[in-house]
Structure formats: structure tokens, C-alpha cells
Amino acid sequence: MNKILITGYVNPDLDAVAGMIAYSEFLNKSGKETMPGILGELHDEAKYVLDRFKIEYPEKIPNANDFNEVILVDSSDLTGIEGKISPEKVIEIIDHRKVHEADKFPNAKVQIELVGSASTLVAEKLIQNKIDISKKSAILLCGAIISNTLNFKGNVTTERDRSAFQFLNKTAQLPADFWRELFEAKSDLSGNKLKERIEGDLSWFNMGGKIIGIAQIEMIGAEKLIKERLGKIIDILEEIKKEMKFNLIFQNTIDLEQNKNFFVANDEEIKNLLEKVLGVKFNGSAAERENLIMRKQIVPLLKEELEK
Q1: Where residue 200 sits, what CATH number does that domain have?
Q2: pTM higher than 0.90 for the full model?
Q3: Which domain holds residue 141?
Q4: Torsion of CA 28, 71, 58, 216, to 10 degrees
Q5: CA-to-CA distance for 255 and 233, rounded, in angstroms?
């Protein structure tokens, strides 16, 4: 196809979906032919916001090789695209992670800046170029910034995230309590939803010769979940570890009301590692930590320790 595909990692979250839709709009208004498209399945959070505001889903792309050029938003490593996209076809990368593989994409113009959300970087392009943004893109970008900064409580939050949100929300006009609505929608983990969420928001990293799986859940009521379903969480993590052939695995559960992290791990090696780099103390298979920390912040700490 002649159009440029704008996408994110496989099974994209809200930040990737918001970024791909809004950046496609920006480039199309700038005279380029692009289209947003997803590889795999949308995260539940992205589905929730799209459904909530009656926004059309991006097209599912069966084969990214049908496109000669690809732009990645909220993605900058080969693991995230799982061999679905040829690195040589990627012409641009917009991401916000400290740990990345941008050097593996030889033809890409790379913008990686440590803000809370990739959507902030896309919003700044619209602002700087004075491109009018549609209400749907403003809503998606605002939602992504709220999600990725944990409603501006996460340590990854910058003034750039706040400024972008304030600008966008003049158009989006989200309800004041939308953050709670968004996180409450992600907090129902009854029945099989728990396994679906753990599997759906799992990332893995090769660090110090070990493949480490990290599941992350952001919700309200994390402490109750850990108390009531710790055994089930461990069973799910062990099943994933065996199936995916990970060396280590753990879960980071973020509670937006308590401003705490709850970690679950069953392997002594990863428990010792987390205790060392995060200063937590495990009681059995669970540990908690005051002040919010996200997976994207934990990964560099683990990588530094494992690759000493």
C-alpha cells in the first residue's frame, strides 16, 4: 500500500492507540497519506475509551508487510513487534522509554524523550505546528496521558505532560472525575478477567542474559485483590513463565487510591532482586511499596543491576 502505516507494539494499549490515531490525523493534515492500524488485539483500556466516546476502532492489520513504510508510536524495541514488522521499513519512532532498541531500526528518525506518555510527544507536534485537533483525538490523547502518568501521580509525570493535557482538554472537555471512571473500568478482575488482564498487559525483557516477564496492572482496590487472589495470581504467573520460557517473572500492581505498588513473585531470585533495587521486603510472595513506580521505571533499575 502507498499509505504509511502508523502503529504501536503488538496488542497496543491506550497510549499507543491514541498516539497512532492522532499522529495519523496530524500527518494527513500536513499533506501525507497515512493510516492508523493495530497488530493483534486492543488492550481493554483502549477499548473502553473508544467505546465510551463512540470512536471508531483503528483497522486491524493482518500483514504489516503490505506497507512499504511504517511509523511506530509508543514502541521502540523488537520484542514489542514480535517479528511482525521489518525493522528496515520503520521510518520514524516516537517513544518515551529509557530502555529501548531504537538502534535496531536503521532507517528511522527517532524521537525518544522521557515524558510520562508518548501521547504527550504527539500532542506537542500538533501544538507546535498549530494543527487543529479533532475532538476524538483530543479525548484519546488526554485519556492516554491520564493513564500513563497515573493521573499525574506517577514519578514519570513531567510539566510537559500536564501542559499537553491542559491544552488538549480545552477540546476534549473530559469530565473532572474521568480518571476515576477510567481506572474503575480497569479494576473489575473477577473470574477469568484476572488472567486476561495479566496476559494482556505483559511485557518481557532480555537483561543480563535472562528473559524477565513483567505483568503490570493499574487499578483501584489492589490490596484487596492481592489478599483474596494471591494464589491465583501466582498460578497464572507460573503458567506464563513455563509457556513463554521466561527465566523470571513478577507482577507489579498499582493502586491509584492508596498510591502504593503491590508486587507478587514466587521465585526467590526475582524477590531478592526486587528487594535490592526497589527497597521492598517480601512477606511470602507479596511485597508493597509506598509511592508509585511503573514498569518503565523498574526495567532500567533491573537492567543496571543485572548487567553490572
Answers
A1: 3.10.310.20
A2: no
A3: 4-182
A4: -140
A5: 16
